[in-house]
Amino acid sequence: MGQQKDDVEVTDDDSESRKKIKTKELLKRRAPITGWLPSYTLGLFLQDFLAGFTVSLTEIPQGIAYAVIAGLPTQYGLYSGCMGCFIYVIIGSCRVINIGPTAIMALMSQSTVAAFGPPGAVLMTFLSGCLIFLAGLLNLGFVVDFFSYPIIAAFTTAAAIEIASCQVKTLMGIKGGSDSFLGSWETVFNRGSEFKKWDLLLGCVTVIFLFTVKEVGRKHGTLSYRKDWSKTKNLIGRFVYIFTLSRNAIAVIIGSVIAFTYHRRGYYLFTLTGSVEQGLPPFKLPSFSITHNGTYYSFNDVLETYGASLASTPIIAVVEHIAIAKAFSKGRSLDATQEFISLGLSNVMASFVQSMPITGSFTRTAVNHASGAKTTISGVVTGVMVLFALAFLTSTFAYIPKATLSGVIIVAMFYLCEFEAVTLLWRTKKPDLLPFAITVICCLFFSLEYGIFIGIATNMVFVLYSTARPKLQIEEICTAHGDGFVVTSKTGLHYAAAEYIREKILDKCCGEATAVIVNGEYVGNIDATVAKSFHTLKKELEGRNQRLIFFNFKKAVRESIIGIDAKLSENFRGGCLEDIFEDNVVRV
Amino acid sequence: MGQQKDDVEVTDDDSESRKKIKTKELLKRRAPITGWLPSYTLGLFLQDFLAGFTVSLTEIPQGIAYAVIAGLPTQYGLYSGCMGCFIYVIIGSCRVINIGPTAIMALMSQSTVAAFGPPGAVLMTFLSGCLIFLAGLLNLGFVVDFFSYPIIAAFTTAAAIEIASCQVKTLMGIKGGSDSFLGSWETVFNRGSEFKKWDLLLGCVTVIFLFTVKEVGRKHGTLSYRKDWSKTKNLIGRFVYIFTLSRNAIAVIIGSVIAFTYHRRGYYLFTLTGSVEQGLPPFKLPSFSITHNGTYYSFNDVLETYGASLASTPIIAVVEHIAIAKAFSKGRSLDATQEFISLGLSNVMASFVQSMPITGSFTRTAVNHASGAKTTISGVVTGVMVLFALAFLTSTFAYIPKATLSGVIIVAMFYLCEFEAVTLLWRTKKPDLLPFAITVICCLFFSLEYGIFIGIATNMVFVLYSTARPKLQIEEICTAHGDGFVVTSKTGLHYAAAEYIREKILDKCCGEATAVIVNGEYVGNIDATVAKSFHTLKKELEGRNQRLIFFNFKKAVRESIIGIDAKLSENFRGGCLEDIFEDNVVRV
Question: Where in this chain does the record put each STAS domain (chains A, B) (predicted)?
Answer without folding.
Answer: 486-560
